[in-house]
Every structure is written in structure tokens, then in C-alpha cells.
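Let us work through a complete example step by step.
Step 1: write down the sequence.
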Amino acid sequence: MYSLVAFGAGLVFGIGLVLSGMANPAKVLGFLDLFGRWDPSLALVMAGAIAVSLPAFALAGRRTQTFLLTPLQLPTARNIDKRLVLGSIAFGIGWGLAGFCPGPALVAIGAGQAKALVFVGAMLAGMAAFELVERARVRLARGRGTSLQNPTV
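Step 2: predict the structure and record it as C-alpha cells.
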């Protein structure tokens, strides 16, 4: 049952990305081009996403289980640190260069866009590089007997 619901949610999400234009890198780049031929239409998509997610997160914050009776695990971190800021900058640069973020890129692969394959390959390489660096950082911290409670880059 869980897999069926996950599939349905993913399908609805993917259809929404296609219909909204988020899987079209030209549309996304037009939205991000504030000083050129700016296309503000994706702002409505974002406003709609916020309008739907705010009450959902408010409800989720009062629950301990999902509607499918699995544990509800919401992020607990609230601090804005250097790693979050640098990661956000890297994400924004990648989004601005390619016109893709992870979800729409996967949808674009399904639509046969070769550019999305290149993006997803680079994204997976970046994720693997992060894992290697993070493991090395943890090993180094353990060797020094240091705590990684508040990690910094």
C-alpha cells in the first residue's frame, strides 16, 4: 500500500511539474533572469506550492505518524550555518546554470531531454563527492576526538 501511495504522489508531483513548466529549463531560466526578459509566471507556481504546504506542515507538526501509520520524521535543525548557506549558494548556481533542480530533472529525463541526463549525472557525482568528503571529515574528527555536533565547513 505504501509503495502505491508513494507512486501516486510522485506521479501527481511529476504531472504538476510538467504542467507548471518547472520541467522546462527555458521557462525556469526565464524566471531566474531578473535583469533580462524576466518571466514571473513561476512565481505563481511557488505561491501555490506555499499555500498548499503551509497548512500541511502545520498539521504534520502536530502528528507523530503519517496517514499510512509510518513514523513522521520532520527536520529538527533550525540553525542557519555556513554549510547551509554554501549549499544553498551551490544549489542556486546549479539551478541558474542548468535550469533544473533535482525533481524537475528526473521528470525531464522521463520526457526524453538529454540535457537532464547530463544534469542528473553531475548531480549524482556531486552527491558522491559530498559523501566522500563527509566520511573523511568524520574520520578526521574521530581521530582528533572532536565532536561534530555543530559541524562547520
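Step 3: interpret the result. The chain has a mean pLDDT of 89.
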